[in-house]
Write a structure and sequence with these properties.
Blueprint (H helix, E strand, L loop, with lengths): L2 H50 L8 H23 L4 H52 L13 E4 L6 E4 L5 E2 L6 E2 L9
Antiparallel strand pairs: 1-2, 3-4
Helix pairs in contact: 1-2
């Protein structure tokens, strides 16, 4: 997965989370305003009825309880909404931290790939050196070593460890990871 794709997916999740949080905050604000304004309208209606119609206050006892609950609930929701105001500096710090984590992951992936490449290069160089040494020994009359037979032997793939059949005249390709494996001169598993 490319770095741009990972960053896009990461930002999409962050945006969706932010929209959800904004929706929750909007709901608190809307409900808080509704309850608070409903309580105020009810309160003004009761007071107007008492003043202008000469009604008895005992008639509005239940209404005052409902009005009080509406005012209190509206006040609580609005206060909760106000206390959740996002702090811009905290949001910036969180974004910077998330960006640093993403960069660290990318660096780690690059380091792992570099290590794998170096290991494959090292193995390839060793096999080449061994093959050249065997050819020189064989051409110089052996110098104490026996001639290299042309029959294939099975060796372990340096990339993944799978068995690969190779011979001195022909390299073998690992069927699992695709690494080219050369004859090393040491007898592998037959």
């Amino acid at each position: 997965m490319s770095a741009n794709t990972a960053a896009t997916r990461f930002m999409s999740r962050a945006d969706a989370s932010g929209i959800r949080q904004q929706g929750d905050r909007g709901m608190k604000f809307g409900c808080g305003c509704f309850f608070f304004v409903s309580g105020l309208v009810g309160l003004f209606t009761c007071i107007a009825s008492l003043l202008f119609l000469g009604s008895d206050i005992s008639e509005f006892k239940d209404d005052f309880v409902v009005i009080g609950v509406c005012l209190l609930l509206g006040w609580i929701l609005l206060k909760s909404f106000m206390s959740e105001q996002p702090d811009p500096s905290q949001q910036r710090q969180e974004q910077q931290l998330e960006q640093q984590q993403l960069e660290q992951q990318q660096q780690q992936q690059e380091q792992e790939q570099t290590f794998i490449d170096a290991r494959q290069t090292s193995t390839s160089l060793y096999q080449t050196f061994t093959t050249v040494r065997q050819i020189i020994d064989h051409a110089s009359g052996g110098s104490g070593q026996t001639a290299v037979p042309d029959e294939p032997v099975t060796v372990e793939c340096p990339g993944c460890g799978a068995p690969v059949a190779v011979s001195p005249s022909k390299s073998g390709e690992c069927e699992y990871c695709g690494t080219m494996v050369r004859y090393s001169g040491t007898s592998g598993k037959s």
